[in-house]
């Protein structure tokens, strides 16, 4: 008998304000076009947080929805792991702020910093706590307010990102230790700090003392993305004795439609088996996978028994993949 982390509830939260590409260009005086953005990225709209919204308020909203779907009371949660690159402050962590907003006092929480790969990292951390027997119920949340770290004069980055939060509830369950088990089968994480300069926030909550903004050499990141993501998904499948044909759904990080389509092709999945939100959400960094997962699970696309592959790459570079059976 093996302990498995079952994904028993998913929830998402998006700020009310949604801007089309044209509305964004007009609002920030950007020299860009809907045509350029759609052709290069697939992005048509993004949500932007209101002045009083933060990673913790949005993360708590997503968490409440996930808990409700799971039928789990906030008091039962033993661990909260939040993936975010835009915490409310250096400390208290976003996780303990969310813990307070949910009214939980018995568990513990902390943040994980792995940029756009943060959700896959956080899922792996929570899964490990559950498998070790230390925790029975966990909340894993990705919550990002990238609008606060944008250089709004840089059209090469500011059109690409949006704000939002997604959450999943994990519960300890039992399995046989085979790939037929329900729950998280395995996660595979990588990082390579030599590529830190191609995608970074150049200040902010760190110790270098100036407000930070996101900087990206998009072409370089793109170059790494498809090869590293394809390799890590293959690594995850091989570790479980599975093949491309076993994957029912791909829930990829939503950075660029061209990267998503390339990954779908590599896995030989028909387009309708690839969950896409980038057109409506843009890139919400660590929130993009749990937001996409919440859509596909809650609208009934993902069915019990389905194998879901999740993959992401982000600043660091950090990247990883998780396989989970629902
Ligand atoms: O979530 C973390 C992971 N991030 C990613 O995976 C992002 C990966 N990278 C990408 O998605 C793409 O590289 C971008 C969408 C960021 C850029 O697409 P690209 O095809 O690599 O374009 P580019 O950066 O090479 O820019 C091409 C041209 C440039 O003009 P010149 O130098 O050819 O005259 C840019 O100045 O497009 C120009 N450009 C724009 N034009 C209109 C850049 N941004 C814009 C814009 N509107 N918003």
Topology:
Layout: E1 2-13, E2 17-20, H1 21-28, H2 34-41, E3 45-48, H3 55-70, E4 79-83, H4 94-102, E5 108-112, H5 118-131, E6 137-145, H6 155-158, E7 163-175, E8 183-191, E9 199-201, E10 214-216, H7 218-239, E11 249-252, H8 257-266, H9 278-281, H10 288-298, E12 307-314, E13 318-325
Oxa(dethia)-CoA binds next to helix 2, helix 6, helix 7 and strand 12.
Care to describe what's here?
By secondary structure, the protein is an alpha/beta fold. The chain folds into two domains: 2-175, Peroxisomal Thiolase, Chain A, domain 1 (3-Layer(aba) Sandwich), CATH 3.40.47.10; 183-325, Thiolase/Chalcone synthase (Peroxisomal Thiolase, Chain A, domain 1). Helices cover 33% and strands 27% of the residues. The protein has ten helices and 13 strands. The protein has helices spanning 21-28, 34-41, 55-70, 94-102, 118-131, 155-158, 218-239, 257-266, 278-281, 288-298; strands spanning 2-13, 17-20, 45-48, 79-83, 108-112, 137-145, 163-175, 183-191, 199-201, 214-216, 249-252, 307-314, 318-325. Strands 1-7-6-4-5 form a five-stranded mixed sheet, sandwiched between helices. Helix 3 crosses helix 4 and helix 7 (218-239) packs parallel to helix 8. The radius of gyration is 18 Å and the shape is globular. The two termini are 18 Å apart. The mean pLDDT is 96. Oxa(dethia)-CoA is lined by residues 32, 36-37, 40-41, 116, 155-156, 159-160, 218-219, 221-222, 225, 255-256, 259, 283, 313-314.
